[in-house]
């Protein structure tokens, strides 16, 4: 099981309706009769009513709802069971209240069985053309959708994702959800707390030429799966005081070649910990993979582990910035 949030995230949790005794709006304040128009993935979308039976896909998306205290608006969530011990996160109450619909991705059957009136998912976070599970397909069933902003398709290719810096995507979704559910003050407080925490890390982070070069390793042996500039790790690395060596890749999560990793010679490798291959197995592979033997991070064994939920768009991102920031300060000396 993967390690989850430390007690340090309680600072963020105090800005939600869970865990640390905060006093915030109640989601029942939402105006049930008012239509709301939002900009989602560059398109204006109008929601005729406040959703009352939301279904979410994956851990980061689900915890965005929990962080806003919207458990009472949810009919269930889908996610694999490789997301670690969920009983010690600030949103533990949400996981206890809301039904776990599937240990795979959402399907039309899940959504219909749950009598969902909104599906909150993302491209490659539930929505997928090959399975016919798309916002357009759901619209034909009379079910509206909201697309995770980190996953929005961009104009570079049909499949590349990302239209804005990742933390801006996080703040955009929190703001939009706050408007849709009538909890704008709660969303604004959460965003303000996240910005404050990240600013505190940046104030002491390495600067200029001292900033370590960082490669994010998700998975893959023949070719590594990593983060371009539109996935959350790019700004997590940047705000922590590092430089994502794949920042020039105009995509979110994507595959690159090992030769590009070797050429860019990262000082640190961050492992994304999830799935059937443990972080330790990934670490052993990286340290033993011959083409990487002269890469600085491998030579000096500078490998840092963050959880999957830290590295996708989620309310855990600020904590990830803080923890990686501490490590990079030590590397920079």
From TrEMBL:
Domain Fe/B12 periplasmic-binding as annotated: residue spans: 53-333
Keyword Repeat annotated: no
Range of residues in the leader sequence: 1-22
A Pfam family that the UniProt record links to this protein: Peripla_BP_2
Domain of life from the UniProt record: Bacteria
Protein name in the entry: Iron transporter
Keywords recorded for this protein, A-Z: Signal
Family: Belongs to the bacterial solute-binding protein 8 family.
Matching InterPro entries: ABC_Transporter_SBP, ABC_transptr_periplasmic_BD
């Amino acid at each position: 099981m993967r390690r989850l949030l430390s007690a340090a995230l309680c600072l963020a949790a105090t800005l939600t309706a869970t865990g640390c005794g905060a006093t915030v709006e109640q989601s029942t304040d939402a105006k049930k009769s008012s239509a709301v128009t939002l900009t989602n993935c560059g398109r204006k979308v109008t929601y005729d009513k406040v959703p009352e039976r939301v279904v979410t896909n994956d851990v980061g998306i689900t915890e965005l709802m929990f962080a806003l205290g919207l458990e009472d608006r949810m009919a269930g969530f889908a996610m694999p069971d490789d997301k670690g011990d969920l009983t010690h996160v600030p949103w533990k109450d949400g996981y206890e209240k809301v039904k776990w619909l599937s240990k795979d991705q959402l399907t039309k059957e899940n959504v219909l069985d749950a009598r969902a009136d909104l599906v909150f998912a993302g491209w490659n976070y539930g929505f997928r053309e090959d399975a016919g599970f798309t916002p357009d397909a759901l619209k034909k069933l009379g079910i509206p959708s909201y697309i995770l902003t980190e996953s929005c398709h961009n104009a570079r290719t049909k499949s590349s994702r990302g239209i804005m810096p990742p933390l801006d995507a996080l703040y955009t979704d929190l703001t939009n959800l706050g408007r849709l559910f009538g909890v704008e003050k709660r969303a604004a407080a959460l965003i303000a707390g996240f910005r404050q925490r990240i600013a505190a890390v940046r104030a002491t982070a390495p600067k200029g030429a001292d900033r370590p070069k960082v490669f994010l390793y998700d998975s893959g042996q023949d070719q590594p799966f990593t983060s371009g500039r539109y996935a959350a790790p790019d700004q997590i690395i940047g705000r922590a005081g590092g430089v994502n060596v794949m920042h020039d890749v105009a995509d979110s999560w994507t595959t690159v070649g090992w030769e590009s990793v070797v050429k860019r010679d990262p000082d640190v490798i961050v492992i994304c910990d999830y799935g059937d291959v443990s972080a330790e197995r990934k670490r052993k592979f990286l340290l033993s993979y011959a083409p990487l033997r002269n890469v600085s991070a491998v030579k000096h064994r500078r490998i840092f582990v963050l959880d999957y939920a830290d590295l996708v768009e989620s309310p855990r991102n600020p904590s990830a910035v803080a923890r990686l920031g501490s490590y990079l300060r030590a590397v920079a000396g």
